[in-house]
Design a protein that fits this description.
The protein has 15 helices and 6 strands. By secondary structure, the protein is mainly alpha-helical. It folds into 3 domains: 68 residues, no CATH class; 41 residues; 239 residues, no CATH class. Strands 2-1-3 form a 3-stranded antiparallel beta sheet. The two termini are 34 Å apart.
């Protein structure tokens, strides 16, 4: 369960305080339960014997959110953690570089931006390069003006159907999200074999999601009809409608990579690998290694590199991967340097056979 996962993170992560906030279900107007009371009692210590359980009642969609240490506390802990190693290499150039990096982090002087990235072979060794990323444009699916046009387009181009329960949603909001999704599938056409269709999400908290089938072989792009019934609400909840589709398309790519790279994996192991984000972890770990060998990210801890991409879910490789690629697709050359390295490693992973 998500609640159990969050508790484990709050209890064991080096960047968490050991406290959690009770975050109430979004969108509810009336509360005839104790959720609001427990939320007001936040923060709760993980080991508090009086701490209530989530879910509190049937259909409870509240969640625990671990409290994070401040960047200053994390960096101070990092300095303390490195103390013994720094003493061992006292006087070396490596020690000098490490201390400079920590000092810059503490003073917020690190300017982690590079002008652009090109040649994958250069980036893979941490060498600077110079290719330009252009922000993604709307794809043809965004031209659909009615639900039936949208349905026919998806059937013709991807051989998938759309859940009829989405018929009354705002067509512009739905097709712009689908445009982000389509842009990734157009770039990596092999992903089409893993796309099963468009459905309604079972999680009312989210804007949209990507859900695999029972065999973890194909998956569905899922919309929240409560959000997508109104274009402005979709913008408000997503921040960028097209970006939501890009984000979920990267999860589709994770599913594709999981099946392509592990043809003999049992279903049980495949389910675990999906939940744990194994394929995303491979890409993110390699991106961290490369980033730490660039002037901009030299010796920077991996969790801080990931926090550049996703300050909330940095501990989930799947979310860091999706948000890094979304950053590149929406912002082009202005994307974070770490996002560009992630995108590069994603391309390499997709092109491997």
């Amino acid at each position: 369960m998500i609640a159990d996962e969050q508790i484990e993170i709050a209890e064991n992560s080096d960047v968490c305080t050991g406290e959690m906030d009770w975050v109430m279900d979004r969108g509810r107007d009336h509360w005839n339960c104790n959720c609001e009371k427990y939320s007001e009692m936040s923060p709760w210590k993980v080991d508090d014997p009086e701490r209530p359980d989530i879910p509190l009642h049937p259909n409870c969609m509240c969640e625990w959110r671990p409290r994070l240490k401040t960047d200053e506390e994390i960096i101070a802990a990092f300095r303390e953690e490195m103390k013994e190693e720094l003493d061992v290499i006292d006087g070396s150039e490596w020690q000098k570089d490490m201390l400079e990096q920590i000092d810059k982090l503490e003073k917020s002087e690190v300017e982690l931006v590079i002008p652009g990235i090109d040649a994958m072979e250069k980036l893979s060794t941490g060498e600077k390069a110079d290719i330009h990323l252009s922000p993604v444009q709307l794809t043809p699916v965004a031209d659909c003006k009615t639900f039936d046009e949208f349905q026919n387009y998806m059937k013709k181009h991807f051989n998938v159907n759309i859940d009829e329960r989405l018929r009354n949603c705002d067509i512009k909001a739905m097709t712009e999200s689908a445009s982000g999704f389509e842009s990734i599938m157009n770039e990596f056409t092999d992903l089409r074999q893993s796309f099963a269709g468009i459905m309604v999400t079972e999680d009312p908290r989210g804007v949209m999601s990507f859900i695999p089938d029972e065999k973890i072989s194909k998956g569905f792009l899922c919309y929240n009809p409560d959000v997508y019934k109104d274009y402005n609400k979709a913008i408000e909840r997503s921040g960028n409608i097209q970006g939501s589709g890009i984000h979920e398309a990267v999860h589709l790519a994770e599913l594709f990579l999981l099946n392509r790279n592990n043809p003999s994996m049992t279903l049980a192991d495949k389910k675990n690998a999906w939940v744990n984000g194994d394929e995303a972890s491979k890409i993110i770990n390699e991106a961290i290694r490369i980033a730490q060998n660039t002037p901009e990210g030299k010796n920077m801890p991996g969790f801080l590199l990931k926090k550049r991409i996703d300050d909330v879910h940095f501990y989930k490789s799947s979310e860091v991967l999706s948000n890094g690629i979304k950053d590149c697709k929406l912002n082009g050359d202005n994307a974070d340097f770490m996002s560009k390295i992630i995108y590069n490693q994603f391309i390499i992973a997709m092109r491997l056979k």
